[in-house]
Amino acid sequence: MRDTIDWFINNPRVSNLLALMLVFGGLLAIPQTRQETLPNVPLERIGVVSLLPGASPQTIEQLLCTPIENVIYGIEGITDLMSDAREGRCAITVDVLEGFATRDVRDQIATRVAALNDLPEDASPPLVEELVFRNRVSQVLLTGDLSPRDLYTAAREMRRRMLDYPEISQVEIEGLPEREVAVEVSRSDLYRFGLSFSDLATAISNDVERVTGGLLRTPQSDALIQAGEAPVSADEYRKVLVRQGGAGDTLRLEEVATVVDGFSQNTMGAWLNGQPAAALDVYRIGNQNVLDVADAVRNFMAETPLPQGMRLVLWQDDAEEYRGRSELLWRNAAQALLVLVLILTLFLGLRMSVWVAAGIPVSMLGACILLPLLGESFNTISLFAFILVLGIVVDDAIVVGESVHDEIGKTGHSRSAVARGTNKVAKPVVFAVLTTALAFTPLLFLPGPEGELMRVIPIVAIGILILSLVESLWILPAHLNSSEPKTPGRLDRLSDRMNARFDRLMTRFFVPVLEFTLYWRYTLVAAASGLILLSLALVHSGWLTLVMFSRVEGDRVMADVVFPEGTSTQRVAETVQALQHSGQALAEQMIIKFDEPLIVDVLAEQGHRRKISTASDPDAHRRARVSLALAPGERPISADELAYRWRSLHQGIPDALSVRFHASLTEIKPDIYINLYHPNLGTLETMGRDLQAQLEQLDGLHEIGNSMNARFTQIQVSATPAARHYGLTERALGQQVAAAFHGVIVDRLPEDDHEVPVVLRLPTAESNSLWHLEQLPITLADGSSAPLSALATLQEIQTPALISHYDRRRTATLTALVDDNLTSPGQVMEHLQANWLGNLAQQYPGATWAVAGKPKAIAEFIDYLGLSYLLALIGMFCLLTIAFGTYWQPILILLAIPFGLVGAFLGHAALGYELTLWSIVGIIAVSGVVVNDNLVLISAVNEMAKAGERIKDTVVKAVCSRFRSIVLTSLTTFIGVAPLILENSAQARFLIPMAISLAFGVLFATLITLLIVPCLYLIGEDARLFVQRLQMRIPTASEDDDVEQAYANGRICGLKNGSASNPYLNEVLHASWEAGFTDECEAGVRRPVMHAR
């Protein structure tokens, strides 16, 4: 290593070329690197969906979910097999274990499911697909005083125009009901013409069916033969031939039914400030650049002419988050670089500080080369990593620069002085960087989607650290050697005065404190250990909570309402309208109170669809959302306070499953998530009600949910003996009822790039009461018909609207949110386990329970991170053992890591922040800084110990020699991230927990390095000497001993207890013993205490 450093110092042009290669390589790589808000990562999850229209949840469970689960369950590589059976639909998801290819597992599932031959004939073939995240870039609202049909037509046209831009590849329309051509036939017409739904469905299918008749080959050309012509519009279905009599009489569909070209009955809609609106969602696919797509959307809005009364509104631009993070990174990097240069100039001089600070852009731009090579991108997560490492990237350069500065101060500026200063700290710097990089390795192998998202953090961090090491050892020394000042300038003289004053302050204030702490080292270490226990108590007691992602207040206030199964679309629409009115009333109140508009837009959505992944969303029609867009910039009232006032304005919604007023950018997940298991559905419902009652009695819990609460009204149709007499079974009756009330898809009409279903059913006016069901004409075997009430009994019963399975077991899920001011999730679970859950098996034989959801994810994450971090610590220990050639000093350095965590925990508690995933990333960086500083310090102690001075004096001198570099590295790290803590933007709120961990952790780690580690070092020496004393026996002195034996006996006594009486009377032997005793005591910590014999 020494030869390599000397070679680069002697060849500065090579160092310059290496720096230029890293800088220009990074500049060239940046435009080639994909830019996105969040990376497209696989969910490692597979979905299976099958439909059986009109079937009850219990029927779906028995006929669809259970058979599919049974064939899936044995496939290797799957875990967490979950299914939901609800009206007409079975949805199954399975997670794929780490190490198995999701696509291969999906193919195995598809093969097994396709081989099932006992599924109902009228069930749709199960659809098997891999679920992935979807990256929406922008949402554009098209709004105006338009009819639903005109709005739909305009939205389709806007989508077509948007896709004309080459940067835009995927646009989806939301906020509009689904298109549908309804063929509605009344009960009276069925009686009048003697028809059934089956007759009409067959007639329509036969008339519109296309049959290919092959090729007609002639000598001139080939011609395709085809029978039948497909309709191209809804009007053409009116001419469908239903029946033709023997006398030439014909009966066409328009004489029997009404053809309505409109929208489905599951109504969805959106309104912006009271006017109908449609949303155009723009997604990024493949390697598209998020900024290019967002710019194309803005260009489209600026360039597209609109008819009078119609306008386009950019409601959401997710690329702004990426822009904000990028600007935040560059702004903080510029601030940190400026302050860094100023501080280093005060201590090291202008030239040296500039060259040391130059390591930041060189290392960061060099790391940009790695991103496209490893398939990574610039996104909000990778920008996290750049901001994280911003504060520690120059630590090794500061150590090298400070060492060179000292050598130059001793001998003057020369090539040899630069080489000596660099080589002096090269070994500890190399091992410090390697151990810091090793601290980030656990993040490389985190499981699940979160692990995939975070994998770029260690890639960026480790890359920057390695390149900073290259810069500090191969590039920086050459620059320092070539930047010899001809005459000391004003800044150099200022630096000299600053260093002299700094040394005086250190000698006057710090050294006495250090000596005091060394004297009381056991007391101080015990007190610091107490702080560790206090920090752990903060987490255990719930004072400091751990969540995956912190809640961040956004620029919108939202009201989200979820209704149970069976809720009518009219009820959802009424709720949307009421929320919209109360939101507009709140906006008017704010104008009166603050004399400025705080709420600028109100968007109401009936049927809010969640589209973060490719998973289907069957519950969308039961959800309502109203969003209040707030004015940008500083506001006299917080968004959370506005949400509270809005909640107080709106009356309760007792029939809703959940009602939530919030202003959070992140998805709010339950803090309490418990699965109850029992094979009996009735017992499971009772268990769910009992646990819900227990939760409702606890303070601090709100939005308590029970998956078994949702009830479904089911009308049981049972065939009478009369029906069986006519050859009708319950299945045949059910099929005719389903065709009339649910509808039968008889054809699909092509429209642009999709198909519109053609549905045959009863009119809405004849399918909205029990009387209409009773009077439904049922076709008998002889072609006649009779009302359903004459052939079947109808019984109204209540059943669960949702039946869930987990690993093929029936389950009820209980959830709740926790108010951190009143209790904590840990305290709630401890109470439940000590009471209700602890007695569950006795109260309900065969019942079990388990934690699921967010609490389970957090527990698994902590377990995995703990194991992987333990392996990283073992790797650090091995590296440090190689560096020091001993075992106890690496243990000493690693023991300092828990003390460094105290600062991070106390910082979160003091500022009122939760511990998050990003906090843990910052804590990992803190552990690297702790190891870095202490490795350099212990190396200095070992180097100075060669002089043979007392250990205590050696420790004091070593700490003083490294005091400036440790303070500088800690100060620059703190400055690198401190501005983030003061940021108020939404982009910075995600980063603040990480900044708190690093900033406060580094400050506390500095005290640990300067005070606790020296104490631990002396305690280690005490332990080593104590062991040696135990292993040694004080020899028996004799006047017959020679001089060498007397000297050896004196050293043994000095090593053994440091206080003894001279056993010799002979003056020569007495003097020899005293010399040995004194030499050993001076080599130790205590002063010799001798007693005359």
Molecular structure report:
With 1093 residues, the chain is of the alpha+beta class. The protein folds into 7 domains: 1-37 and 322-483, Multidrug efflux transporter AcrB transmembrane fold (Up-down Bundle), CATH 1.20.1640; 42-132, Alpha-Beta Plaits, CATH 3.30.70.1430; 133-180 and 263-317, Multidrug efflux transporter AcrB pore domain like (Alpha-Beta Plaits); 181-220 and 712-800, 2-Layer Sandwich (Multidrug efflux transporter AcrB TolC docking domain, DN and DC subdomains), CATH 3.30.2090; 509-543 and 886-1020, Multidrug efflux transporter AcrB transmembrane domain (Multidrug efflux transporter AcrB transmembrane fold, Up-down Bundle); 553-664, 2-Layer Sandwich (Alpha-Beta Plaits); 1032-1091, no CATH class. The chain is 53% helix and 19% strand. The protein is built from 35 helices and 32 strands. The strands form 8 sheets. Strands 1, 2, 3, 4, 20, 21, 28, 29 and 30 form a 9-stranded antiparallel beta sheet that branches. Strands 5, 6, 13, 14, 15, 16, 17, 18 and 19 form a 9-stranded antiparallel beta sheet that branches. It has a 4-stranded mixed beta sheet with strand order 12-7-24-23. A hairpin with a 5-residue loop joins strand 25 (777-779) and strand 26. Helix 15 (395-411) packs across helix 32. It is elongated and about 145 Å long.
